[in-house]
């Protein structure tokens, strides 16, 4: 048997690592090759809606009546407009009752409907009516949105949607004797009417 020379043994020992490198390169190349596909949903964003409520009073009070006498009556209308991008609910309530003796005897009836404008109820057609109450009762029972009356559902129309409210009043002293009626001379009362719109909560 021929004994390998020193040189041939060195060549054989170098051939093994070279083969391992070649195999490793082939394995890496095979593992980095794959089919792929993807898809995307782009442009996600969020923007809040808006609610807006106005009326046509131009800053004037509906009633500023002087020299009121027993049995006197009156009525006026006001148009409320919602310009909103989302549906909502409008309610009417009161604030800032000034009680100087007449608050129990000025009684009001409030109706909601269509037609009519501020100070002029021509063409008004009622769709809902709140029972007649004295100003003191109205102020005690309806002082916030939560206790508001005559709810009006709005659809969410940015260009505007309107409802008209007719307020009728009477100075009713029918329950008093003449001495008590005379005692009311020189007294007064006042109250604020407020409409509030809140968006409809999501279901």
Q: List segments where confidence is low: pLDDT < 50 over at least 5 consecutive residues.
A: 1-16
Distance between the termini: 95 Å
When the domains are counted, the total is 1
- Let me know the average pLDDT: 89
Sheet of most strands: 5 strands, antiparallel
Assess the beta-strand content as a share of residues: 35-45%
Widest sheet, order of strands: 1-2-7-4-5
Envelope shape? elongated
Order of helices and strands: HEEEEEHEEHE
Share of helix among residues? 10-25%
User: What's the total helix number?
Assistant: 3
Report the radius of gyration as a whole number of Å.
Answer: 41 Å
| Number of E-state strands | 8
Which structural class matches the secondary elements?
alpha+beta
List the helices and strands and how they pair.
Blueprint: H1 6-31, E1 53-55, E2 73-82, E3 88-100, E4 106-114, E5 125-134, H2 135-141, E6 149-154, E7 161-171, H3 178-183, E8 188-199
Antiparallel strand pairs: 1-2, 2-7, 3-6, 3-8, 4-5, 4-7
3D structure, described in words:
By secondary structure, the chain is of the alpha+beta class. The chain has one domain. The chain contains 3 helices and 8 strands. The protein has helices spanning 6-31, 135-141, 178-183, and strands at residues 53-55, 73-82, 88-100, 106-114, 125-134, 149-154, 161-171, 188-199. The chain has a 5-stranded antiparallel beta sheet with strand order 1-2-7-4-5. The longest helix is centred in the N-terminal third of the chain and has 26 residues, at 6-31. The termini are far apart. Residues 1-16 have low confidence and may be disordered.
